[in-house]
C-alpha cells in the first residue's frame, strides 16, 4: 500500500505506549500511528468534539469509561462478524427438521464433528 509520511507531536507517555504497543504487535511505530489516525479521522465531528470535551472537562475515570465502551462495542461487532461468517459457512441442507431439544443437540454434535 502506498502511503504518505506525516509527523505528529505527542506527550512522552503516549509515545512510550506507542513504542510498547508496536513492539508487542510486531509493527512499526509509524504503523501504529497510521492506524490510530485512520480511526480518529473517520470519527464524525460530534464524536471527536465529545472526546475532546471529555478529556478537558471530565474526570480521569470518564475517559477510561469511554475506552471501555469503545472496546465493548468493537468486541461486540467482531463477534457479530464471526457469527455471520460461521452461519454463512454452515452446511445445513443435509439436516433433518429439528423439533425436539434432542434433535438440536444431535445436530449440534454433527456440525462440530
Automatic annotation (TrEMBL):
Origin superkingdom: Bacteria
Listed name of the protein: Uncharacterized protein
UniProt keyword annotations, A-Z: Plasmid
Amino acid at each position: 500500500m502506498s502511503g504518505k509520511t506525516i509527523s505528529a507531536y505527542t506527550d512522552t507517555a503516549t509515545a512510550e505506549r506507542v513504542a510498547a504497543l508496536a513492539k508487542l504487535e510486531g509493527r512499526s511505530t509509524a504503523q501504529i500511528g497510521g492506524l490510530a489516525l485512520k480511526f480518529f479521522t473517520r470519527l464524525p465531528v460530534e464524536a471527536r468534539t465529545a472526546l475532546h470535551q471529555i478529556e478537558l472537562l471530565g474526570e480521569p475515570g470518564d475517559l477510561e469509561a469511554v475506552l471501555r465502551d469503545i472496546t465493548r462495542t468493537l468486541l461486540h461487532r467482531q463477534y457479530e462478524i464471526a457469527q455471520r461468517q460461521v452461519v454463512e459457512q454452515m452446511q445445513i441442507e443435509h439436516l433433518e427438521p429439528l423439533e425436539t431439544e434432542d434433535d438440536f443437540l444431535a445436530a449440534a454434535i454433527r456440525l462440530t464433528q
